[in-house]
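This section describes the prediction task in plain terms. A model, or a person checking by hand, is given the sequence of a single protein chain and must write out its three-dimensional structure as a string of C-alpha cells. No templates, partner chains or ligands are provided. The sample shown here is typical of the held-out split.
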Amino acid sequence: MQDQRFGRAIRALRRRAGLRQVDVAVRAGVSQATVSTVELGHLDRLQVATVRAVAAAVGAEWQPDLRWRGGELDRLLDEAHAALVAGAARHLTDLAWEVHAEVTYSVYGERGSIDLLGWHAGSRRTLVVEVKTSLTSLEETLRRHDAKVRLAPRIGDERFGWRAVDASPLLVLPAGSTARRHVARHAAVLGRAYPLRGGALRTWLGAPASPAGGLLFLSPTLRGGAIQPRTTPSRVRPTPAALLSAPPAPSTVGGDDRASATVVPDSREWAGVDSSVPGDRWRRHGHDDRIAESGAIDGRSAGPRPGGSPPAISRGDG
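The expected answer:
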C-alpha cells in the first residue's frame, strides 16, 4: 500500500469512528501533529512503531508489504528452507531412515504439512522433522510440532502403511550464531522438548531404541542445485620463519658519476630491532646499511670490516 493511500485510509477510518485527530493521538500515545503526518502519507518521517500505534487507534492493523521482482522474493525465502530440508533428508537417509517430504494431512479436523516424515523399519519408529530457518515463535513451534508428533503414527499408517510403535520429534535449525543464541536463551524449555544433541542424537538416529526428541543444527547452502557445506574464506599470511628464509632481493644504487654498489638486505637483522635507532628502523624493512662492494656513495666510502664481514660505511672527508 502506498503511503498516501495509507494516510487516506487512516483518515477514513477515523471519521467513520467519529474520532478527532486529537482522540486518535491520545489512544496511540502520540501528538496530534503525528496523526496529521500519518494522514498526509508522510510515513518516511515516522518510526514503524508509531505508524502501527496510529493504525491500532482506529481499529486497523498495519502490515508492511515488501516486494522484490514479482514473486522471486518468496522463492528466495523458500530457498533457505528447501536447502535445510534437503540436508536433513540426506542426513536421515544416510542413517537408514525412509524419508518423505512435505507430507500433508487432515486428521480430526487438524490440517497441516510435515516437512519431513521419517520411518525406521528396524525399530518401527516414526520421526517428525520440523525445519525452521529462524526460531521466531517458540510457543507456536512447540505446539504445532507436538500436534504433528501426536498424529504421525496415524498419518504414516494411512499414507504409507507404517505400523509405528511411537513417534519422536526432531527440530532442525541452521547452524548459525543467531539460531544458537535463541536456543541458548530458551535452553530450559528446548532442553525438555529436544534433549538429544550432537553425538548423542546421531547415535539415537542410527538405532532408535526408545522415543526421544532431538535438535539438529545444519548449515547447507544451495550451489548449482547441490547441497554444499557453508565455507568461510580465510586469509593466509606468511609466517616470520617464511619471511626470514626467503632469499633477499638485491637492489642496485648508484649514479652516472658515482661507483655503483649493491645493497644486500640482511634478513638476520629483523629480530630484536629498536625502532628508536635510525639504523634499526631501516633494518625493520629487511635492509641493512652495509654495502656488498666497496665504493663511494654520496661522498661515503666503504672500508673492510674485521673478520671478513661485509665492508662498513664510513663518512668521507668530503
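For orientation: Confidence is low (pLDDT under 50) at residues 222-232, 251-303, 312-318.
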